[in-house]
């Protein structure tokens, strides 16, 4: 079975920014939810049970820093990455003292935010939890950056690794070529379907030399990772 996706709650009253961040994180394999206010964020923490919160400091019904402090006082230890337009050292100290785990200043790149999110998750990951994604006899280790099938190591390029991981995290789900382009080659990449086909063929030569094949083509739609064609 595949590893359940890590859940991230994005809290920002600028809906376009919240949606943009949530979309970027979904392309990276996270499950996401959004909130626009402090009160909504508290409700979402209870309902969505996020593994990490991306929290804007300025909210219409209060401070994100106060929200974080309230969550900590209520016993929630969910890691928090603050978003803020203020980069003064004293502001960062206040945020981190309130229980934040990192501090990202606006404007920021989506790639930087994703890297920060992953770094915080690695630092705060409970002892004994796994960084692996597994499907059938395929094992992908994010921390070690390794891939094994049938117990044998498979050498992949960074792009091949990212493509394979995305297929594995979404095993059983048909992914379109556009989804794969957006995820693996970033959001503004102007590539063609041929790029996806080429890298799928690379993966098949390395991963599907074993039986049963795991990467399947859905004609005129895209690709899916599953144990058989049925």
UniProtKB/TrEMBL annotation:
Annotated region of DNA binding: 130-227
One function term, GO molecular function aspect: transcription cis-regulatory region binding
PROSITE patterns: OMPR_PHOB, RESPONSE_REGULATORY
Gene3D superfamilies attached to this UniProt entry: 3.40.50.2300, 6.10.250.690, Winged helix-like DNA-binding domain superfamily/Winged helix DNA-binding domain
Coiled coil: none
Keywords from the UniProt entry: DNA-binding, Phosphoprotein, Transcription, Transcription regulation, Two-component regulatory system
Gene Ontology CC entries for this record: cytosol; protein-DNA complex
4-aspartylphosphate PTM positions: 56
Lineage top rank: taxon: Bacteria
Keyword DNA-binding: yes
One of the GO biological process terms: regulation of DNA-templated transcription
InterPro entries the record matches: CheY-like_superfamily (IPR011006), OmpR/PhoB-type_DNA-bd (IPR001867), Sig_transdc_resp-reg_C-effctor (IPR016032), Sig_transdc_resp-reg_receiver (IPR001789), WalR-like (IPR039420), WH-like_DNA-bd_sf (IPR036388)
Alphabetical list of CDD domains matching this protein: trans_reg_C
Response regulatory domain location: 7-121
PANTHER family: REGULATOR OF RPOS, TRANSCRIPTIONAL REGULATORY PROTEIN TCRX-RELATED
Protein name stated in the entry: Two-component system OmpR family response regulator
Source species of the chain: Saccharothrix ecbatanensis
């Amino acid at each position: 079975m595949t590893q359940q996706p890590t859940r991230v709650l994005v809290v920002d009253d600028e809906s376009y920014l919240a949606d943009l961040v949530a979309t970027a994180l979904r392309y990276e394999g996270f499950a996401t939810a959004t909130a626009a206010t402090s009160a909504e964020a508290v409700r979402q923490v209870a309902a969505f049970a996020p593994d990490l919160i991306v929290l804007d400091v300025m909210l219409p019904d209060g401070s994100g820093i106060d929200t974080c402090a309230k969550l900590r006082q209520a016993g929630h230890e969910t890691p928090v990455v603050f978003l803020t337009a203020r980069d003064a050292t004293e502001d960062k100290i206040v945020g981190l003292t309130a229980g934040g785990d990192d501090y990202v200043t606006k404007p920021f790149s989506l790639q930087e935010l994703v890297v920060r999110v992953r770094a915080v998750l690695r630092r705060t990951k409970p002892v004994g939890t796994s960084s692996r994604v597994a499907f059938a006899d395929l094992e992908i280790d994010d921390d070690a950056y390794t891939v094994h099938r049938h117990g044998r190591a498979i050498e992949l390029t960074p792009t091949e690794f990212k493509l394979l991981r995305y297929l594995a995290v979404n095993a059983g789900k048909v992914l379109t070529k556009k989804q794969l382009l957006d995820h693996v080659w970033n959001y503004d990449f102007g590539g063609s379907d041929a790029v996806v086909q080429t890298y799928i063929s690379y993966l098949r030569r390395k991963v599907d030399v074993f039986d049963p094949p795991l990467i399947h083509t859905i004609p005129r739609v895209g690709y899916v990772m599953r144990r058989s064609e049925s």
